[in-house]
Amino acid sequence: MSKGIVYYEVGEHIEQFLLIKNAAKGIASNGKPFLTLIFQDQSGEIEAKLWDVSDGDEKNFIPETIVKVSGDILNYRGRNQLRIRQIRPASSSDSVKLSDFLETAPLSTEEMMSKITQYIFEMKNPNIQRITRHLLKKHQESFIEYPAATKNHHEFVSGLAFHVVSMLDLAKAIAGLYPSLDTDLLYAGVILHDLGKVIELSGPISTTYTVEGNLLGHITIMVNEIGKAAEELSIMGEEVIILEHLVLSHHGKAEWGSPKPPLIKEAEILHYIDNLDAKMNMLDRALERVKPGEFTERVFALENRSFYKPIFHK
Amino acid sequence: MSKGIVYYEVGEHIEQFLLIKNAAKGIASNGKPFLTLIFQDQSGEIEAKLWDVSDGDEKNFIPETIVKVSGDILNYRGRNQLRIRQIRPASSSDSVKLSDFLETAPLSTEEMMSKITQYIFEMKNPNIQRITRHLLKKHQESFIEYPAATKNHHEFVSGLAFHVVSMLDLAKAIAGLYPSLDTDLLYAGVILHDLGKVIELSGPISTTYTVEGNLLGHITIMVNEIGKAAEELSIMGEEVIILEHLVLSHHGKAEWGSPKPPLIKEAEILHYIDNLDAKMNMLDRALERVKPGEFTERVFALENRSFYKPIFHK
Amino acid sequence: MSKGIVYYEVGEHIEQFLLIKNAAKGIASNGKPFLTLIFQDQSGEIEAKLWDVSDGDEKNFIPETIVKVSGDILNYRGRNQLRIRQIRPASSSDSVKLSDFLETAPLSTEEMMSKITQYIFEMKNPNIQRITRHLLKKHQESFIEYPAATKNHHEFVSGLAFHVVSMLDLAKAIAGLYPSLDTDLLYAGVILHDLGKVIELSGPISTTYTVEGNLLGHITIMVNEIGKAAEELSIMGEEVIILEHLVLSHHGKAEWGSPKPPLIKEAEILHYIDNLDAKMNMLDRALERVKPGEFTERVFALENRSFYKPIFHK
Amino acid sequence: MSKGIVYYEVGEHIEQFLLIKNAAKGIASNGKPFLTLIFQDQSGEIEAKLWDVSDGDEKNFIPETIVKVSGDILNYRGRNQLRIRQIRPASSSDSVKLSDFLETAPLSTEEMMSKITQYIFEMKNPNIQRITRHLLKKHQESFIEYPAATKNHHEFVSGLAFHVVSMLDLAKAIAGLYPSLDTDLLYAGVILHDLGKVIELSGPISTTYTVEGNLLGHITIMVNEIGKAAEELSIMGEEVIILEHLVLSHHGKAEWGSPKPPLIKEAEILHYIDNLDAKMNMLDRALERVKPGEFTERVFALENRSFYKPIFHK
Amino acid sequence: MSKGIVYYEVGEHIEQFLLIKNAAKGIASNGKPFLTLIFQDQSGEIEAKLWDVSDGDEKNFIPETIVKVSGDILNYRGRNQLRIRQIRPASSSDSVKLSDFLETAPLSTEEMMSKITQYIFEMKNPNIQRITRHLLKKHQESFIEYPAATKNHHEFVSGLAFHVVSMLDLAKAIAGLYPSLDTDLLYAGVILHDLGKVIELSGPISTTYTVEGNLLGHITIMVNEIGKAAEELSIMGEEVIILEHLVLSHHGKAEWGSPKPPLIKEAEILHYIDNLDAKMNMLDRALERVKPGEFTERVFALENRSFYKPIFHK
Amino acid sequence: MSKGIVYYEVGEHIEQFLLIKNAAKGIASNGKPFLTLIFQDQSGEIEAKLWDVSDGDEKNFIPETIVKVSGDILNYRGRNQLRIRQIRPASSSDSVKLSDFLETAPLSTEEMMSKITQYIFEMKNPNIQRITRHLLKKHQESFIEYPAATKNHHEFVSGLAFHVVSMLDLAKAIAGLYPSLDTDLLYAGVILHDLGKVIELSGPISTTYTVEGNLLGHITIMVNEIGKAAEELSIMGEEVIILEHLVLSHHGKAEWGSPKPPLIKEAEILHYIDNLDAKMNMLDRALERVKPGEFTERVFALENRSFYKPIFHK
């Protein structure tokens, strides 16, 4: 297996299969067209330039195409860039497939569904349990494939489910230390909080926002879904409002998209657990690319901070 | 008919029926209990003190009781206060009734419903028309009685309906000048935008927030209602999302309670019309209590400004 | 008549007269100079590159020159760009003139002046009427030609006058619904509010800020003008201060350039009318360039929002 | 001469003449009226209560009356209060006069005017010199008596002139160290920057805001005055705009009331000098009332900070 | 054992020993002195008024005195207040002691020290371990007694140590789920983060800020202490800077008192753990005083929110 | 002596020695490598492009190399750029040295140290004097060479010392006008306030931040140094805390890096003096590059303002 694309250093030569994530045409100063390509493999992505492209090149090298590339890594404005020497589309005889190039969650979908099912099974309040099970089942197919976001954190295939599983484990550990917490609410809140993303986002690859996503957002979408689920299941207790509130408030503040701040203890903790797992994911991804004694690239979603890996961290 | 309570000046004597809006017990420095009463009539309200109260007084003088009061207006910390000399509960022979003391909209409920019905009738898009008509009918009874808010603007009986009627007229006038506006969306947006208040608030008198109001808010409540109405009426076009967006975004900004800002032209204008009518209501009420050449009391919902009435305004 | 420059799509060929709005020289990576030109017609503008320019080219292709251009539309970083194949300055025999390429108000200057004159005629307070008439007359020549701004809204020839006319009609419609409004103040406020721009800005074409505009701004400039007009006309009533306050406060908040917020009812409404008309102008211009089901480009002056045109809007 | 009112400690007895600054009537819990009086002498002020007042008391003890008071200092909610035992209006035989009780600048008005005149004399640019001299002369009578503000800093008789003199000395000292500064602009800016307060404020005693002050503010008022002065003196150079800009921008930021920030070097420095002198005045006044090792009361205009006087400061 | 003072309802009679936390003298409207007393027991505190006090009363009823009180609970402005009927200082024969009235951590100091010692024992990096052990030992006596704050959270005897123990358990649980975390840094960060409070605050009872606390703050104090400890122990690795950074950044943002934001992964997580434990403490304390279906009092340190206890939470 | 690099105008030819401050490799659209060089001399810097570079070029033209360059000044995106025609490394026979190209303070290091020593000599409080002298001596070697910052103000060799000397003179002048100021504290605060930069920054040339600088910052570093100095000198009075506070608070606000705002009068004034001297330095540098009647480039550290040089300023 070849080395991940983000681990190459300036000056190294590269020759391997890569997936085109993005392609944009430009016109060089000599008047000839060129392509700016973003290549992707499971380790991450790299920008590349293909000069003097023909009309055929433009048609061949489009997003979601796998190509065989050879070239050199150089530094452009402080970031690595790939200078392409040779490039050709992969053929069927190359026996490479899309999923080889997509980052995916470190757990299998079966493991993740099994863990989540177990958490739902542990719920004691039947209203909460039934609504959660109903909605998960309704959207399960997308849920298990979607990323948790288009960028920033868990932006990979099955990222949403993996984020939920990590949060459930975290919820269990914290509730073990603070027994006043209602685990039914916490688990249901974790499972439902981002489920609206299966309607807000377009799908697991080349993810964009749908019109409904843009105009309503995943929070409002999911609050509506809970309301309809309760009606369909003829559930009418205060649990319905509380579950809606947990989803509604999980971004924590109006400026961050929650029209009501958390007003239930478990809503406040849900917001925390969500944040903590997202931050750990972002920190680990940023830090694994630098060596001890170095600072990471700036991480936009962490207030643009650049983090330091201590020398004594091997 | 006696003079409105807010129009008395310091030093004047008063003797008339008033409604108790609020009553709170305190202990004076001589160790004896007293009551702080808020009296109300259609012109507004005034604070009063009743000293050395008996147990009977405490039971008699409770909110929503009509009383006959005599006393004097004095100034306490820059605001008028009523010093009670005599007070007794109204009896049936006094032939006074609750509605005599409640401020109410200047149009009759029939006139208002007739105007709104006409606006719905003018809608050309059947999906928008059917959803609007369905929801108005479902909540009509409360809609026609509720205030538009617990304070700040249109905080009187039928204030919500009156606010809607004023906004509809404004929408029509503006759309007459900017013909690119879709009046179906504008009218529907105006009628539905605050309709969730009939669930958020407790009722037309002594209005407070319900639990659902506190945890979800009228915006989320109404967006849910639109979703359920569409399901019930089997309507599935983009109109549903657009109507939900109009309600969702009508506060204009995340900090003001709209998780999505207006992203449709008519949503932006709806936000404007709402604001303009609310401001006119607040300005008129503040200015009608001062004379030319004076400044009003500070108006909290208008950034705490104190407005000036020019000398040449009679 | 040829198609407006902003309506071409990528891949289309173009051959027509255009006005050079802006020209900047650069050095290409082969060491040869090139020009980045901004072309303009009444529909809007487009960027273009002219490679390998001679000294003569540099001298010929300067701002406010009309040229005959042929070339192709391509996409560069998500925006249309024109790749020039041939370009030559227009000659007198081409019978094209500057005003063919400048966007201008949809009403003639005569119509606009006639409407404004009528509004002044309707004023009842002689002090307000005389000051307004005096200042309009003093600056009429520039007023009727200037844009309302260098960008964002009404940034076209006679944009200022057109903005004023629209606002006057809006003021009249609103005052019809809220009869407590003083139309003398509203009309005078509308006419004077941005009149200082005739001193703040350099002129109707290639508009920039003057030194006085940079150091004082159109609000302060106009407040001074009102003061001097009153002195010249020997007017001394409170109307002078009120008119100065209307202009001073019309941006609504200190952060937006008004050292005093509106403290008169009509000042608050003036701020609203100004905003509403500017927003309608920006929204219409952004939306007329997209098809139903699409989002507009981000509009900077509307908090960088991207607006959606519903599918059911033809 | 008796001890200043602010230097008494809890438990001390007091018997001396004081000036009534403010009087407000209240009703005690026994139903009897009382007066809350603010007494003032040159050292500062103290609150006092007069219980069981007669109608005569109410008429005698009004603002700007001198009274002979005896009573005791007690502590009420952490602040000193005077409990009145005896009080009577001063008679002509008491030979006390208003100015004995008003705090005033530490320099005589003659000294101050002489210093300012000298600074104007030193100006080299005739346009700047003439405008400054003209405006100072026009408003000299008020200028020499007014406070610099109604509260916060230099809020005493002739406080405005004293603030200007201190700032002129500071300007001279700073310009001595940074010779690139234009002292003409600095001196003129210092003299004119707050001169509009003679129109914004009501007068030297019991100072309030005028209508013009409320609606326009001293900055706009003075910019207008400069414009009119230039017209009257037929001065037309860029100096006029620059002087207007100095006054316009001297609050430093839009949020602080300057629609344009300083865009001239001397405008930036003027803002600094103004701030520095105001802060020194507030700090000295707050610190002279505490002993080494103590914190001052919170100073509102210094971000509500409480300052510490080090133990080694005697 | 008598019922906790915060659990009494309006109208109930009370007769028990209480600790005076605060006493302030006032003058009633009849001219007689009274005392406002704050009583405290382990459940919380209540305000009380003692009317017509003698000089002896003033001397007897001072802070940190235990008294026997009888009286009635009444409601004053929405909060409970105690109306004292009888009050006397406790005598030695009453066999009550100070610690009976002070809220204290739910774990014994021995248990807490033993847990913390165990965590230090588990550290693997000797530099981190030695500095942590040295500083804990140096300040152990105060550390084990101090509250974690003067108000908001863990504001009880040994609150600081209890907060640290809870955070250590939380750190361990989280590190169990995210194995990339360096537990040495997390544990050391937890133990040291607020240790500077033993210098910032005056002591375990009637806690106030010291001069050093006011001028430097516990963060700066502790960073200095780490620097000195390293010098004393002749430790020079990067661990010293990293430990200083953990303490320096643990408030998360400049506005919250950390001049540097967390730039080490463990620093970011430390900030989270600190927040989470503080919030759980505040939420539990607020919610245990209300019944299901009620909202709590507003919690200032939680953005002034009022939290809801669901009906289905017994 | 040749003309400073920043004073050339577009179109001029240049031929002189320059220092390479920065070099970055890029790949041109023809596939050939090029270098973007930043050249520097005492007047400032300019960007240049070297096309078609060989491997030898890459090795020769690296930062801190002196080169002989000939070429032409052109305009690229509104800024001057140098188009290189010929370039060669300087040889020993060229008799040019590094310091010829570095901007440096206008006073010699001897003069500056002598002035600072004199100010320390004038201190009367022995504790303050001994700590100041001790720390200056400890870091003197770096202090006298370091810039005051990496950009914005006094970013030249010995900039830190020059900034300190200017501030000392300013402190003396201001204290002369406000005699209540403690000059010992002011002088010590000035000398120590930025001394931590000798640890925060890497050195006088090509200055970057050290790890300690990034994680702690110069304020925290210096507060620690004062604490250690006091311990070493066995000084224990309140002066230590006060000096630490002066350094800690000199950025004025939490958002600007001071965890405590100034709470001592001299701390507030120190913050002012620091700001004033930095601003004068930035203003003078920006204004000396434009002619009367022009605006400067935007100055980032002065809220991105562009300053005007009046026409009557020669």
UniProtKB/TrEMBL annotation, chains A, B, C, D, E, F:
<comment type="similarity">
    <text>Belongs to the YhaM family.</text>
</comment>
<dbReference type="InterPro" id="IPR020873">
    <property type="entry name" value="3'-5'_exoribonuclease_YhaM"/>
</dbReference>
<keyword id="KW-0269">Exonuclease</keyword>
<dbReference type="InterPro" id="IPR003607">
    <property type="entry name" value="HD/PDEase_dom"/>
</dbReference>
<keyword id="KW-0378">Hydrolase</keyword>
<dbReference type="InterPro" id="IPR050798">
    <property type="entry name" value="YhaM_exoribonuc/phosphodiest"/>
</dbReference>
<dbReference type="InterPro" id="IPR004365">
    <property type="entry name" value="NA-bd_OB_tRNA"/>
</dbReference>
<dbReference type="InterPro" id="IPR006674">
    <property type="entry name" value="HD_domain"/>
</dbReference>
<feature type="domain" description="HD">
    <location>
        <begin position="163"/>
        <end position="279"/>
    </location>
</feature>
<keyword id="KW-0540">Nuclease</keyword>
<dbReference type="GO" id="GO:0003676">
    <property type="term" value="F:nucleic acid binding"/>
</dbReference>
<dbReference type="Pfam" id="PF01336">
    <property type="entry name" value="tRNA_anti-codon"/>
</dbReference>
<dbReference type="GO" id="GO:0031125">
    <property type="term" value="P:rRNA 3'-end processing"/>
</dbReference>
<protein>
    <recommendedName>
        <fullName>3'-5' exoribonuclease YhaM</fullName>
        <ecNumber>3.1.-.-</ecNumber>
    </recommendedName>
</protein>
<comment type="function">
    <text>Shows a 3'-5' exoribonuclease activity.</text>
</comment>
<dbReference type="Pfam" id="PF01966">
    <property type="entry name" value="HD"/>
</dbReference>
<dbReference type="InterPro" id="IPR012340">
    <property type="entry name" value="NA-bd_OB-fold"/>
</dbReference>
<dbReference type="GO" id="GO:0000175">
    <property type="term" value="F:3'-5'-RNA exonuclease activity"/>
</dbReference>
